[in-house]
Write a structure and sequence with these properties.
There is one protein chain. The chain contains three helices and seven strands. By secondary structure, it is α+β, with helices and mostly antiparallel strands. The chain has one domain: Hotdog Thioesterase (Thiol Ester Dehydrase, Chain A, Roll), CATH 3.10.129. The strands form two sheets. Strands 3-5-6-7-4 form a five-stranded antiparallel β-sheet. It is flat, with a radius of gyration of 18 Å.
Amino acid sequence: MRRHPNGRDTIMRDTLQPGAKARLEYKVPANKTVPHLYPEAHDFQVMPTVFATGFMVGLMEWACMKVLEPHIDAGEGSLGIHIDVSHIAATVPGQLVTVDATCTGVSGRRIAFEVVAHDGLEKIGEGRHERMIVPWERFVARVNEKAKRARVGEISAVEKR
């Protein structure tokens, strides 16, 4: 990450451009189905054992992180800040889900993506996602300040790549 001319903000390296893509393939295991999303929630426990929307969203985020991987510096990472997706078809355990993520915009540290998920038989989800590039050390420090105010335990530091 580089310092913006205004001296305050940081900006993404210019190697990341709209059109950058990544594909992620994932065989859905039984523990990524709806009853496993929140095991303590009875409402989820009585639902069908199909790929959960929450896990699909996580898979979409993962594909976007793969787009970013070659473009971020050591000590940096990305956080999901916006998600707008539709889950349009059920997928059963054992099916292979493919997620295609495409960078659609770079605005400073804010990166926009289009995501599409397919299970080999049909499109199962699609939408938009945004991530923010952050220096982990500064992020962890801010979160730990919040943890102190909330009187809860601190989070651990991010492992360096």
